[in-house]
């Protein structure tokens, strides 16, 4: 059997980092971990080929070669997925689809022959067995969750790794919290399931042995969902693994209660974590109560962010406007909060209701659901009827993004963060890509860019006051360029110098 694994194109979004990737000659952020994991579960004797269209186009010869096409994706890749499925069907191929896009919207894809939904560890073997026995069905799904301690390591060899900026690996699935707009618990359960420390180290060893020295994103829904196993097994093992190695900084996703645990933060930093994404959502206490984000309530969120930064990790934040409890002052409150926190990578979206969430059910019951979400929570759209006037919400959103990504506001946050953060513990791996990125940033941002004044101020400040964080300063400058370019595209206008919010 010849299996063609297909990954659809990402549009130009906040997380695509498209306008930053060109500085380091990379084509995509991370490889399709779901497909690489599925590939490892297929029979060993089968031939496998991966085409990630974010890296190279799908050729007719790829389709001619294949017996089956297996496709994955997220909602945000919907349009490209339609196109690829159509091409595969035109070429007369059997199409098998799985992953989050199809698990949430399989009804929209009539051309797909078989859906293998939810977690592939359970549904793929059932599909393969039925196929062998000639009793294959149209849909395979499950409400059970597998023990990921048995998940095989991804087949990295299928991917052209040097085209990616970051490698992804997974340690756990599921989250102990209950935020009403998030579908993680519906999809992956409430009780975090983990791999063993041995599995994680094996996967890292595989990557290190094939020469990977760049960042590794541990793609967990909440890495600190099971603190005990982290403190007792995983982080000590990672600290040991790191000895004598260069590069490979880690980043991951965590909940804000990380900031309450100094021991955990210290272990994470020593293990090589230098960046965490945290769902902060809103400084509005009533909105936090509304969405059941208990872990963020009754605390000084700015101070929590600072504690993580002081420990040595950059905090990237997810924010939402348009909760029922928000009023027209929310934009100013969010802007002030984000400016004070020194969060440069602030992903802000209007409240959206993903299928399968409590919010989705509530909106449906209240007659406020407008259909499915676009999947890109940074495009200023929503699939619900908000309490605030939609026009007011979208205008406020636009002003908020415009303000935060103007050079002045962005670089002000970058400096605040760099002043606060402890220099990274990971030994930097300097290769040509970094040097090239530095020169390109000098030309694009320091000479041609609208941010040239702020760029040089940060450049010299970092170089002379805190040289250990100089590479981070340049990376932040490049990220800022991506966010600003994206905002300008979204609003179809140049961002003003600094617009007042009130
Ligand atoms: C890493 C990650 C990202 C990364 C990169 C992802 C990438 N390149 O693939 C980044 C940060 C870029 C990202 C961004 C976004 N993400 Co994201 N992301 C994740 C995360 C945390 C892990 C994905 C992962 O690698 N999992 C590990 C692998 C092993 O699991 P998997 O892919 O699901 O595959 C398993 C099964 O799905 C199945 N399977 C998968 N593919 C296939 C194919 C076949 C043929 C078969 C049989 C089975 C199968 O088997 C696998 C093993 O069980 C998930 C949450 C989650 N836990 O899944 C969200 C998630 C995928 N993201 C989501 C969203 C919404 C986004 C964003 C739109 C916005 C946002 N709020 O973050 C952006 C948009 C991206 C963009 N560029 O525009 C949603 C998708 C919802 C949906 N129904 O599509 C998820 C589920 C999170 C959520 N709470 O809703 N994301």
List keywords for this structure.
single chain; alpha/beta; six-stranded parallel beta sheet; 14 strands; binds cobalamin
Give structural notes.
The protein has 502 residues and is of the alpha/beta class. Helices cover 43% and strands 12% of the residues. It has helices spanning 18-21, 33-41, 60-65, 78-90, 100-105, 120-133, 184-188, 197-209, 227-242, 262-271, 285-290, 301-311, 330-341, 358-365, 390-404, 407-420, 432-447, 452-465, 470-491; strands at residues 2-7, 47-52, 68-71, 94-97, 114-116, 139-140, 167-169, 172-173, 193-194, 216-218, 250-254, 273-281, 314-321, 346-350. It has a six-stranded parallel sheet, sandwiched between helices. The model has no long low-confidence stretch (mean pLDDT 94). Residues 10, 13, 15-16, 29-30, 32-35, 37-38, 70, 72, 74-76, 96-101, 104, 116, 119-121, 124, 168, 170, 173, 182-184, 188, 219, 221, 354, 375-377 line the site of cobalamin.
How many β-strand stretches? 14
Mean pLDDT across the residues is 94
Structural Rg? 23 Å
Strand line-up across the major sheet: 2-1-3-4-5-6
The 3D shape can be described as: globular
Helix content: 40-55%
- Summing up helix and strand content along with how strands pair, one would put the structural category as alpha/beta
Distance between the termini: 63 Å
Strand content: 5-15%
Bound molecules: cobalamin
Number of helices: 19
Main sheet overview:
6 strands, parallel
Spans where pLDDT lies below 50 across 5 or more residues: none
């Amino acid at each position: 059997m010849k299996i063609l694994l297909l990954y659809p194109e990402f549009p130009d979004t906040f997380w695509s980092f498209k306008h930053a990737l060109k500085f380091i000659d990379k084509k995509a952020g991370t490889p399709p971990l779901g497909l690489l994991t599925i590939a490892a579960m297929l029979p060993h004797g089968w031939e496998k080929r991966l085409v990630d269209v974010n890296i190279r186009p799908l050729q007719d010869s790829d389709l001619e070669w294949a017996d089956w096409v297996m496709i994955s994706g997220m909602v945000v890749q919907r349009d490209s997925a339609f196109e690829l499925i159509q091409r595969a069907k035109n070429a007369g191929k059997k199409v098998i689809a799985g992953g989050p896009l199809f698990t949430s919207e399989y009804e929209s894809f009539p051309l797909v022959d078989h859906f293998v939904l939810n977690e592939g560890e359970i549904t793929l073997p059932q599909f393969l067995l039925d196929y062998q026995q000639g009793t294959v069905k149209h849909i395979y799904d499950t409400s059970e969750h597998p023990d990921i301690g048995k998940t095989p390591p991804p087949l990295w060899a299928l991917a052209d790794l040097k085209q990616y900026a970051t490698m992804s690996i997974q340690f756990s699935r599921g989250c102990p919290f209950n935020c009403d707009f998030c579908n993680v618990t519906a999809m992956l359960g409430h009780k975090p399931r983990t791999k063993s420390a041995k599995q994680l180290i094996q996967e890292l060893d595989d990557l290190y042995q094939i020469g990977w020295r760049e960042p590794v994103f541990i793609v967990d829904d909440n890495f600190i969902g099971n603190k005990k196993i982290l403190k007792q097994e995983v982080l000590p093992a990672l600290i040991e693994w790191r000895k004598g190695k260069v590069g490979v900084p880690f980043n991951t996703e965590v909940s804000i209660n990380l900031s309450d645990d100094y021991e955990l933060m210290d272990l994470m930093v020593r293990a090589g974590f230098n960046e965490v994404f945290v769902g902060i959502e809103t400084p509005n206490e009533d909105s936090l109560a509304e969405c059941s984000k208990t872990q963020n309530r009754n605390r000084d969120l700015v101070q929590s962010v600072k504690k993580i930064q002081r420990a040595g990790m950059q905090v990237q934040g997810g924010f939402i406007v348009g909760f029922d409890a928000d009023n027209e002052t929310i934009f100013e409150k969010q802007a002030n909060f984000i400016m004070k926190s020194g969060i440069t990578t602030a992903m802000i979206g209007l409240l959206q209701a993903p299928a399968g969430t409590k919010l989705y059910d509530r909106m449906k019951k209240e007659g406020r659901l407008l259909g499915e979400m676009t999947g890109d929570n940074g495009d200023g759209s929503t699939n619900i009827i908000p309490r605030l006037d939609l026009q007011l919400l979208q205008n406020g959103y636009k002003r908020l993004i415009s303000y935060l990504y103007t050079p002045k506001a962005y670089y002000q946050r970058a400096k605040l963060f760099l002043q606060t953060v402890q220099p990274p513990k990971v030994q930097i791996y300097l290769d040509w890509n970094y040097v090239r990125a530095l020169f390109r940033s000098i030309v694009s941002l320091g000479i041609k860019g609208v941010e040239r004044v702020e760029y040089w101020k940060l450049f010299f400040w970092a170089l002379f006051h805190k040289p250990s964080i100089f590479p981070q300063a340049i990376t932040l400058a490049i990220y800022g360029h991506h966010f600003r370019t994206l905002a300008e595209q979204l609003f179809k206008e140049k961002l003003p110098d600094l617009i007042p919010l009130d």
